[in-house]
Amino acid sequence: MARVLVVEDDPDIAALVAHKLRSAGHEVSVAVDGEAGLAAIRADRPALVVLDWMTPRMNGIEVCEAVRADAEVSDTRILMLTAKAQEADLERAFTAGADEYMQKPFSTRELVLRAQSLLART
């Protein structure tokens, strides 16, 4: 269906998210840090990025801002998936350009539904 990139440094969460999205019919790749994620976004042009906030080398907010500032990939849909749960965190993510925000722990069913909803908008 769609190309999806998961940027997540926790291997168990990355594997779970990738598995659920593949089961929903998507082509999924994984990057383990923000710099690798941004490089993959620019090289592979995924339709959707599932982006953790707290990633090494470049955090998810920095990745989100870099994507929105790059005209070549600025239309990429971004679903922020994070343990950060304060209202100010949510505001910061949307200000940086996130299209959707989910908190960990999360429902895999809800994750797939939100991903499908974002992809339907592209």
Automatic annotation (TrEMBL):
Gene Ontology MF annotations: DNA binding
Give the Response regulatory domain ranges: 3-119
List UniProt keywords, sorted A-Z.
DNA-binding, Phosphoprotein, Transcription, Transcription regulation, Two-component regulatory system
InterPro entries with a match to the protein in the record: Bact_response_regulator, CheY-like_superfamily, Sig_transdc_resp-reg_receiver
Q: Which CDD domains match?
A: REC_OmpR (cd17574)
Q: Which GO terms describe its biological process?
A: phosphorelay signal transduction system
- Is-annotated flag, keyword Transcription? yes
Q: What is this protein called?
A: Response regulator receiver domain-containing protein
Q: Where does this protein come from, organism-wise?
A: Flavimobilis marinus
